[in-house]
Design goal:
Radius of gyration: 55 Å
Number of strands: 27
CATH class of the largest domain: Alpha Beta
CATH superfamily of the largest domain: Histidine kinase-like ATPase, C-terminal domain
Structural class: alpha+beta
CATH topology of the largest domain: Heat Shock Protein 90
Length: 723
């Protein structure tokens, strides 16, 4: 396998050698059959090389020579090349007459022995003999064949195509061979007629053109950018045009990208409201934007002769020179430098400058660049803020001023006390540091509508949660007004007053709860009392007719039920939303006091807590809680019944009231505290609703679960106790 691979490699190499020759060439094996040839040997361009390989070379030669005698002379030269006579000089050359398209011509056949993988072959090179008058042109051709850049030579007197092209030109124009490309001219490779005309005019007028850039076409019609340098030269006494063509497509693409990028940068720079500048290390202005010319009043010629320090008053020139020298030495940016911009008319405008060093590819400082911003409005605003600072500071409410971007410019002590932030922590920060994103978005939307004139007023009031530095929040009211410049033409920011409305919100919540209680109270009066009243009225009529003691007892029972309901209604209607005043209460004592006043029948009370265990709350309201829970247990269970009171275990704070009765089904435990809910035919549905209201008023929570004996267990969690 190694030998076969080596033979294949030699064959490929031989083919490459033959193909690279500019003259007609044949490589013959020991049988004089064609082993390899090139395109120059083909009689027509549409004939393939493979169609010749394997044919006997003499068959081909006999077709193109004029007589049998010349064919014999070529055969003798081939035989001589195979003769291993060491004294013979090679190549063996013979000249014969051959037929060509232009008539009979003389060609030389040079035969040289050639080693072909261990056997002797023959290399035949055939071309016209050197004409002394064309030797210079041949040297040109040989030189051009060594060049990697595309070269084409044209005879000016000829009407045909290229006289010569090198391989680089063949590759550039996508031709299959030199012969194919020779059928074309340089002019017909220009894509645009205008370029063809201009190129021809330059060559006619000047006899040369240098780096003429145009879009050229390959033979397949593909376009590419080319650069043509051509000159008319006398070669062998005849004028020739030698053209050098370079593919500059990549360079053009890079130039276009750079131009687009530069145009974008220039557009951005020129659209800046600030002045932009670049100076070299000699102090010459090398780049600037339109705003610099507008702001200073100087024209282009004047600007390009001015040094950096000439743009400021004489009293500030030293500061500018020192800053530039310091920047070049340290290679560090100057973020903020205030000075006055001196205009051509002599006006001095306050400006804030930022300056950065400009480096070359090696990292060497070659200049400085930066921007300058007119701070006239800011100076006016600062003076105005200073005028109002003492007034704002004297206001008890929290007051702030924001710039047009929503950043704090001024805050008073009341605002810092409200929020827990220092003045330094707020100034310069966005208002979102104390307001939620939703509130900020709403405020910005309102400001936009005011500024754009969608609203006729310039103020608005928001309710929001203010975020303190420690993460807590409090409800507040923010009364905001828009600020304008002196001419009321430009929006400059907003001012606002923030008030803590925590107490107002609490009062609103309390009023809401009281209203809900009154609604319940009205509902009970209109609906729940109607039934016992109707019962009493009916049995009064019976009692009057019959005098039966049982009918009178029914009336008394109905009146008693009404008294119970009215007592519950009054408790609910008069209970505060939030219990503010509390006192320490021993759990055991409170339980016993409630047990004495509750109608508990034959039930038993067990206290499962230490005698000193204390809770903090409103005694009267908590007595009502215990009484209702005791009565609820007695009313819904058969004797004997035991009711226990104790404290919650683990890390929970609170107490429980449990019984050993039948318990409460799990699917009813969420609804038993709802107003009017009862499972007893003579129940009011107020008891547990009252319990829930009074527990909530203490800031506690209540839930029902199963007791250890299977009965109901009410757990009151006092973790939110304020004691």
């Amino acid at each position: 396998m190694a030998g076969a691979d080596g033979q294949t490699s030699d064959t490929d190499q031989n083919d490459a050698i033959i193909e690279s020759m500019s003259a007609t060439a044949y490589l013959l094996d020991s049988s004089l059959n064609i082993a390899s040839t090139n395109r120059e040997s083909l009689p027509q361009t549409d004939v393939s090389i493979d169609s010749f390989v394997g044919d006997n070379v003499m068959d081909l030669i006999e077709e193109i020579v004029n007589c049998e005698e010349d064919a014999t002379r070529v055969r003798n030269a081939i035989d001589a090349a195979t003769d291993e006579n060491p004294e013979r000089d090679f190549p063996v050359t013979v000249g014969v007459e051959t037929d060509a398209a232009i008539g009979t011509t003389t060609r030389e056949y040079r035969c040289t022995p050639f080693d072909m993988a261990g056997e002797t072959g023959v290399l035949i090179v055939s071309e016209e003999p050197d004409d002394p008058e064309t030797q210079e042109l041949e040297r040109y051709k040989q030189l051009c064949d060594t060049l990697t850049v595309a070269v084409a030579i044209t005879t000016n007197e000829a009407d045909g195509g290229f006289e010569f092209v090198n391989q680089a030109a063949v590759d550039l124009f996508g031709a299959d061979s030199k012969q194919e490309l020779n059928g074309h001219t340089l002019c017909d490779r220009f894509a645009e007629p205008r370029d063809r005309e201009q190129y021809s005019e330059q060559m006619t007028a000047n006899g040369a053109t240098e780096e003429y850039e145009a879009v050229l076409l390959t033979l397949d019609g593909d376009a590419f950018w080319g650069s043509v340098t051509a000159t008319v030269t006398e070669i062998d006494g005849q004028e020739h045009t030698i053209g050098v063509i370079k593919d500059i497509t990549e360079r053009k693409q890079n130039q276009r990208e750079l131009q687009e990028e530069r145009a974008l940068i220039d557009g951005i720079v020129d659209s800046l409201p600030d002045i932009f500048y670049t100076f070299d290390t000699d102090g010459s202005l090398v780049e600037y934007n339109e705003e610099l010319r507008t702001a200073t009043g100087y024209d282009q010629q004047e600007l390009e002769t001015m040094a950096p320090w000439e743009f400021v008053p004489e009293t500030e020139q030293g500061k500018i020179i020192d800053a530039i020298n310091r920047l070049i030495d340290s290679e560090e940016d100057i973020d903020h430098l205030e000075a006055h911009l001196l205009t051509k008319s002599g006006d001095e405008i306050p400006y804030a400058f930022s300056v950065s060093p400009l480096f070359d590819a090696d990292g060497t400082v070659i200049g400085v660049t930066g921007v300058g911003r007119d701070i006239t409005d800011r100076r006016k605003r600062e003076r105005k803020l200073e005028q109002h600072r003492e007034v704002i500071q004297a206001v008890d409410d929290a007051v702030y001023l924001l710039d047009e971007r929503g950043h704090f410019e001024l805050v008073n002590d009341a605002l810092t006390e409200f929020t827990g932030y220092s003045r330094e922590e707020l100034l310069g920060k966005h208002t979102s540091v104390i307001k939620s994103d939703a509130v900020v978005e709403e405020a910005e939307s309102t400001v936009r509508s005011m500024v754009l004139g969608d609203r006729t007023d310039d103020e608005e009031t928001f309710e929001l949660e203010i975020q303190r530095a420690d993460g807590t929040e409090f409800p507040a009211e923010d009364h905001m007004v828009l600020l304008w410049d002196d001419d009321h033409e430009r929006f400059t920011g907003t001012a606002g007053i923030i008030r803590d409305i925590t107490e107002r919100k609490q009062n609103e919540e309390m009023l809401q709860r009281q209203n809900e209680r009154l609604e319940k109270f009205a509902s009970m009066i209109s609906h729940d009392l109607r039934n016992p009243i109707s019962v009493a009225e009916g049995y009064v009529d019976f009692a009057e007719r019959t005098g039966d003691e049982g009918d009178f007892q029914k009336v008394r029972d109905a009146l008693g039920r009404m008294e119970t309901m009215i007592s519950g209604m009054l408790t609910m209607a008069t209970a505060e939303t939030i219990v503010e005043e509390r006192e320490p209460l021993e759990l055991a004592v409170l339980s016993k006091n409630a047990w004495e006043t509750a109608q508990t029948g034959g039930a038993t009370l067990e206290i499962e807590t230490e005698s000193q265990q204390t809770i903090y709350g409103d005694r009267d309201l908590l007595l009502n809680v215990f009484e209702n829970l005791f009565r609820n247990a007695v009313d819904h269970n058969e004797p004997p019944l035991t009711i226990r009171v104790g404290t919650l275990d683990g890390d929970r704070s609170g107490f429980y009231i449990a019984d050993n009765g039948t318990g409460i089904p799990e699917d009813e435990r969420e609804v038993i505290f709802e107003h009017g809910y009862t499972t007893s035919h003579d129940g009011t549905g107020f008891g547990l609703d009252i319990v829930s209201e009074l527990i909530t008023a203490h800031g506690w929570s209540i839930r029902v679960t199963a007791g250890r004996d299977g009965g109901a267990r009410f757990e009151i969690n006092t973790d939110t106790d304020n004691s």
